[in-house]
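yo

u said u wanted the structure for the complex thing, so here. seqs first:
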Amino acid sequence: MDKVISVSLGEIALKGLNRGYFEGKLIRQIKNMTKNLGAPNIYKGQGKIYIEADEVYFEQIINKLKKVFGIVYISPCIRIEKDFESIEKGAINAFKEVLERENIKTFKVETRRVDKNYPFKSPEISRRIGGTILKNFQDIKVDVHNPEVYLYIDIKDKCYIYTEKIKAYGGLPIGTNGEGLLLLSGGIDSPVAGFMMAKRGVKLNAIHFHSYPFTSERAEEKVKNLATIMTRYCGNILFYSINILDIQKEINAKCPEDEMTILSRRFMMRISEKIAEKKNINALITGENLGQVASQTIQGIHVVNSSVKMPILRPLIGFDKVQIIDIAKEIETYETSILPYEDCCTVFLPKHPVTRPKLGDIEESEKNLDIEFLVNRVIENMEYSVIRGK
Amino acid sequence: MEVYLDNCATTKPREEVIDEINFMLKKSYGNPSSLHRLGFNAEKKVEESREIISGFLNVNNDEIYFTSGGTESNNIAIQGLVNKNKKRGNHIITTEIEHPSVLNIFKYYESKGFDITYLKVDRFGFIDLNELEKSIKDSTILISIMLVNNEIGTIEPVGEIRKILDKKASNAYIHLDGIQALGKIPLELNKWSIDTFSFSGHKIHGPKGIGGLYIRKGTNISPIIYGGNQEREIRSGTENTLGIVGMGKAVEIVKNNFNKENKYVRELKNYMHEKIMTNIPEIKVNSLLDESFSPYILNISFLGVRGEVLLHYLENKGIYVSTGSACSSHGKGKSHVLKAIGLNNNEIEGAIRFSLSHLNTKNDINYVVEELKKSVEDIRQITMR
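structre next:
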């Protein structure tokens, strides 16, 4: 009798022929995240992934696993041979642990027999083990409708017994849905947008725009700190840092004041697309949500989209601010986001930005600018670094 | 080229100070309270430093107490005096333009129901002695005033305060926040007849994490930190021997060079002022040039320029300055000092504090003004269209 951690996969199980690929990605990620926690052995076991680790690391490993996308829930299990006597012993042990943890009165046994050659059928095993528990513990009752605890028994090559299902985020393993370039500002929204897409399996890269010396180095450091927090979920992030002050100066000098924001956004998209294409990244990601600020109108989105060909993913488009804040708190980026360092948008913020820009007008204004030259120049001066998890 | 003009925030330690600290770390690491020789030697070094400092301030050895820095010195003085004397009265006086390490203690006492007077200041930061006289009551137990203002450099007329107290037959204590004053202006603690005086090591090219407090003999004060009764029960905790000896060295050097350095820096300030005035239009000078102001501080508003943007422009050229004061540039709020002297928003936002040291040269200033001119023009062109 020993202990392992089991990991249940949600949507991955639906992916048919691709299943092996998805599972392989996930196992590599788990390996990577747990290599400093006793380098556990990891194996597939008929629908689940199992982790054989030293028990002292269980809590730390489970905390890491909670942040791995593609996992639906996590269970510490007792692993035993599948002869009936062993199962009985294992069940008694598991139940003892439950009673040490919490004061419960009712339970139910739920058996899944993957090994169809096993001499007893699932309901019969549940019934027999239920009897074993009742015989061995006092003041305990079976409640099949609303039990306080479930005793799960999975019969496979071996038998696994567990009583906890610790929820994880679900989603799809990182890297199974292409790569995205996240426009990361110092605000609340963009880290949440990155999280949402990473949860759908997108491998993240980040690009940050600043206007030094109109913004401070501390402001950029804050954005890097946000990216560092995101690595807990997303793995290492390639971080591009772009100074767009020259472009803002040029717009400021040559275009109408109320178009400053929308013109800057178009430049940010062009710069991002250019870098993304060079790096084989498939999409841009932003934290925009409809109506939050002046540039985030449907007309504004249309004008911004028209500046590039690459898809711009906006996972927060229909979210309210409170919903975004809730997620930001959950993923622990909120406290950093609200630190008071200005990002580049506020310096050149027009007093009355155009809210329903017309593509024709904007394109007319851009005729005063040498777009390609400006884009290439800031990209030439870009800096990048790898943000690694801690 | 690197020009450091943020000497009110902190200063570069002198070589001799670094050597002294090195010696303490490597050779004289004993605890002054230990009975053995290593401890005794460390104790001797601490007492030597105390003598240097008391000599410089022209006070007695046993009137100098070592602390962890300026903030702690202000806290020990103000809280120690108020806590010990609150039975005599609950009225305490300070000014509107104090450092947060004083202002926030007063806010705390205000929240506890104390009667507080915040003295107003004129457009150069001077308190009105008539207002001070009028505000003194029978219940007044403490007046706390910053000798040299850290943002604009005003030297308050503290020599007059004792006379006013005597005239009103008041027993109130006087605390001077001397953190920007030690080594920067002539000090006459005895003549002024003040009761406590706080100072800090790292503002005079000494190390950080060390400060001191002068407490006049016979002053009725209680400790705010309890422990092993070091520093004659006023500041318990193992002595910071490195800091003490480093600060002692810094004071010794400043003492030997005071007149020379003071005169030199005042000339430099005048030179810089002149250069800026002739090269950059639309500015407002918030500091005075005469003896009523510290020679080390020149505060100027560049209208139509955001101070923080200018600060980053200059840092890119290796020039380090401050907006308002280092402490208030973190917070979003505008400098309370510049508000109190009546500057409008535009003048506050454009304010830069240049704080000099003996290490700066005319050559430095030429370079700074040249870059300043370019940066201000560039920023104005962008933001004032």
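The first strand of chain A starts at residue 2 and ends at 9. The CA atoms of residues 110 and 246 of chain A lie 66 Å apart.
cya
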